[in-house]
Amino acid sequence: MKTRKQLTDFIRKQKVAFIASVDEEGFPCMKAMFAPRRIDGDCFYFSSNTSSLRARQYMENPKASIYFYSKGRFRYEGVLLIGTMEVLQDEAIKKEIWQPGDLMFYRQGVTDPDYCVLKFTAVRGRYYCDLKTTSFDIDRLG
Predict the structure, then answer these.
(1) pLDDT tens digits for 80-136?
(2) Would you put residue 109 in left (φ > 0), alpha (ψ -120 to 50) or beta?
């Protein structure tokens, strides 16, 4: 099993993240997103639209998962993290996550009411590599 640092280093190299929410009928809903803008320990920050279906689902049910993978010629590696997602409207965190290219999506800039930050907090996960899967609790990772 990899250490927390090794898992974080692996995640930082990925360009795409898959995030999952739970709909009103209890079904999982998956979506591809750009990689997290920031990673602080067990917390992952994504930019999103306040008006998005995913943001609404997280406001109703914060249960979530995120998945990262790398597929090489002979090796597939993946990390699934399970936890909760918060929809943040705090201007300070929005400024921290903001990137100049975001203006294309949020015409009013950082204060655009349709711009929010999704904060995922991991509690447990599964790591897959070389036909082996290992489950882990985040707080027990070395």
Answers:
(1) 999 999 999 999 999 999 999 999 999 999 999 999 999 999 999 999 998 999 999
(2) left
Contact 43, 4 (CB under 8 A): no
Could you tell me if 23 and 31 are in contact, meaning their C-beta atoms sit under 8 angstroms apart? no
Structure tokens of 47? 């930019």
pTM: 0.94
Spatial CA neighbour of 49 closest among 91, 99, 89: 89
Q: 62: number of CA atoms within 13 Å, CB side? A: 12
Strands (E), the chain: 16-22, 28-34, 38-40, 43-49, 63-71, 76-88, 115-129, 132-137
